[in-house]
Please model this.
Amino acid sequence: CWATHWMAYFAERGYTSYAMSLRGQGRGDHLEGAPTLDDHTADLGKILDHLGQPAVLLGHSFGGLVVQRYAADPAKFGGPPPAGLGLLCSVPPYGNGPMLTWSFAARAWDGNPELCKETFFSKEMPDALVVTYMEAMAANSRGRLLDLSALNKLLPLTASNPGGAPVMVMGGEEDFCVDVVGVEETAEAYGVKPVIMPGMAHDIMLDVKWEQAAKEVYQWLEQEF
Model:
């Protein structure tokens, strides 16, 4: 998702960025069983430790939960404190509803372009692109993303930002996965005002208005750093 538009967008504006592949997803290691939230968070800590300097962490959807878990206790996961947090259509600290969580685990959208569009994209998204991205998501989801029973034992997370790093919380007005209420609750937990993108759905990095969302993040970076 990040590499399609956003990484080039920010590179053109002087920002070096890296996209982390979660275990069993994308280019991440394929392991037996389902990883836990702390497995993913420890992987993030290793990457940040390798970079050797604080970074602004952008987390989308479940990735936002990983970022929140890391930011609350960076030392536990072996990396430096983050320079900033961007929570984009992020799962709130208390998690998502059980039915939605299980529907993701079951990949109900796979092979169903209509449901995939309803779940991830705005009404304006061309159907041909929906099919392209649906097939790419299916190909990159080679294993189970998460041990849901282990996650439930951790929730709700403590929305903690001990280093006082700047925080941005963004959501899409038409997001089926993380609705505006969820975005607002995440923003309230971190003491910031949410940015709600008009007409945008869950996958803000790929949707037709992706550049508007990227511009909001860019302006936040320029203002804060």
